[in-house]
Amino acid sequence: MSRFHFVPFLFCSFVAKNKQNRSSTAVNPHILLCTGCNGRGHCSGTPQGNASGNGQFQKYTCICDTGYEGLDCEKEVDGCAAEPCSLGRNCSNLSIEQQRKEGRAYKCGPCPEGFVTDDNDTCIDVDECSTDPTICDVTSTCQNTVGSFECICNTGYRMDGNSKTQCNGN
């Protein structure tokens, strides 16, 4: 059993004839089509790629509305695909409405302890030594670490086994 595949083909050509029945040379117009971008964008004035088939037809490039992507705006944006959330935080895709409101396609979970979130939803290390100069006792020096801090006891002192901020004399 054989199957046939029909591919519609359209070719436009214009020829002018005068009263003496003389014909002009054929004019084959270049036709730019707007797909409508699936109702999720609008056509630009820029053709996409090369003309197809007989070289006569070409589609305009779609400029997709917020939340959509693809040649014809056929796909919803997956904001979490590029794993934008640092430090292993959860990523949640936003609805189209939320994307329009927030100007991005995803939302990250909270930053871990020892970090704060900046305006770009990036976790920034908190310098506990600067924010609380008395975090370590007077017999030690505070040293900031990523996501935390460490109290380093002065010479002649050692860390109290029950505390990470108190040093005892030897």
UniProtKB/TrEMBL annotation:
Known Pfam families for this protein? EGF_CA
> Start and end of every EGF-like domain?
30-74, 125-168
Q: Which positions carry the signal peptide feature in this UniProt record?
A: none
Does this entry carry the keyword Secreted?
A: yes
Does the UniProt entry include the keyword Cytoplasm? no
Kindly state which keywords UniProt assigns to this record, in alphabetical order.
Disulfide bond, EGF-like domain, Glycoprotein, Secreted
Per UniProt, subcellular location reads as: Secreted
Q: List the disulfide bonds.
A: C64-C73
- PROSITE patterns linked: ASX_HYDROXYL, EGF_1, EGF_2, EGF_3, EGF_CA
UniProt protein name: MLP-like protein
Q: Which organism is it from?
A: Mya arenaria (Soft-shell clam)
| Record lineage | Eukaryota, Metazoa, Spiralia, Lophotrochozoa, Mollusca
